[in-house]
Structures are given as C-alpha cells and as structure tokens.
Amino acid sequence: QCLLESAARDQRIPLLTLQLDRKAKVDQITSGTTTLCIAIRHGQVLSARMLLRAGADVNNQFLRNQATLMWPVFYRDMAEWCIPLLLAHGASTNLKAGTGNTLLHDAVGRNRIHAVKALLESGADIETNNEDGTRPLKLALDTGDRELISTLLLSGAGVHRNIGGTPSALFYAIFQGLIGSVQLLLEDCDAERDIRETDGAGCTVLHYLALSPIRNSAVVELLVGYEIEINVKDHMGDMALHIAAFSGKIAVAKKLLEQGAKMHLQNQDDKTPLDYA
C-alpha cells in the first residue's frame, strides 16, 4: 500500500501501473486518507485519472466523513482541473462532512466561486441546512461578495425564507450590517416585497436597522425610498426611533426624524424616544 501511495504522490507512472496491475487496494484508508486524495492533494492529474480508471471510489468518505471532492473545494489551485474530473466520475455534490456542511457550504464559506458554480451546475442542493440550520445563502451574505451572492440567487436560493433567525435575507443583511448585501438584494433580487414584512415580534426592517451595526443614515434613506411606514410599533410598542435612541444611533435617529418619525409616541412602558435619548 505504501508503494501505491508513493507512486501516486510522485506520479511515478511505471510503478503506479505495476501496483494497479497487481490489484492494489485503491480505496484503502491509511493515515486518515485515501490514495486518490493523496494524488489530488499533490496535484498529480495523471495519477488521479489512473486511480479513477482502476475503480477508486470517488465518494469514499474518510477522516471526519470528509469526501474526496473536498480537496478542490478547499484549495483554489485544484478547482479547475479536479472538480470536473471528480464530477465526471460520479462524485456526489451533497455528501455531508462531520460538521454537517455540504461541499457547497464549504465552497461558499471559503468564497471559492469556481467551485460554487461547478457544484451548482452539477445539482448541489442550494437550500440544504448544515447542523446549525445554516443555508449556503447565509454564508454568502456574510462574505459580502457580490458575485458569490448573485450566483446563489440566480441559481434559486430563497431570499424570502427565514435565514439566521430572521424572516428573510434582507432582514438578516440589515441586522448584520451588510450594507453591500442590502443594496444587492434590493436592486437585483426581488427583496423589495420583504421591506414591509414584520417578524414574530412585530419588528420591521427599520427596527432591525436600529439594532444593527449600521450607523450610515443612507440605508434609512434607501429603505424609506420604498415607502415603508416609519412609525410602525412592534409588540412592545417600540418604533424604530425608540430603538435608535436607546442604542445611541444618532445618524439613524436623525434620518428617521427627517423622514417623519414621531419623537413623542410612547411604548408600553410609557417611554418616548426622547426619554431614551
């Protein structure tokens, strides 16, 4: 087995051919990995092709349930030659590692756009959750990468579904302070319909904005441009202005006031935004 692994690693074709002719065990797992993975990790294209032709199991899961296709997802320089090769030999795009992540989760989280596109074109499930209940779209929004987010959205990722404990992708992007993602969702992704939605506590996107790290008043202006109601109260009677005042978001509070927020309306504790300022 050591001869097979060293031949594959160093792409010593005569020795590799000899070992394969002798029916060496191509799928035996040693040191937590397979011979096919060793060839791939060392960039040995010919070795990988020979092992696959000899029947190497492309979906063999080894240490912590990792799959062979993981390597070109993790390492950018392998993606162009290795992903098509493994997919052509039947690699599954929906295997889950010990973390519960699919390969698409890992590719998105590492911002491997080439791998993401290849996996989606091969039928990777764009809506699957990992063990934390996280979909690939949430990971894409966290990167803020416009091409990555657009790729998922054009492939059918659900922007109107719950994400990260919020009602939709727009709510999540606002709450996390992802200004670029907010703009993309509103401009290109039919997120406008979510602007007037509320969550289970009666909070609007403006409430989420007042709670978010965003201190840029331009986002308020962007949202109110879609005719959102400024003075909506949540189930505790708080308007976005209450929360902005309590959170010290001065620029956001000023913009809300400019857009017609009322500073003297009380919440259920009989407090006005002015009381929190």
UniProtKB/TrEMBL annotation:
Gene3D superfamilies: Ankyrin repeat-containing domain. GO terms for cellular component: nucleus. InterPro entries: Ankyrin-SOCS_Box, Ankyrin_rpt, Ankyrin_rpt-contain_sf. The keyword Zinc does not apply. Keywords: ANK repeat, Repeat. ANK repeats lie at residues 31-59, 99-131, 132-160, 236-268. It comes from the Eukaryota. GO terms for molecular function: transcription cis-regulatory region binding. GO terms for biological process: positive regulation of transcription by RNA polymerase II. The keyword Repeat applies. PANTHER family: ANKYRIN REPEAT PROTEIN, PROTEIN FEM-1 HOMOLOG CG6966-LIKE PROTEIN. This is Ankyrin. It comes from Clathrospora elynae.
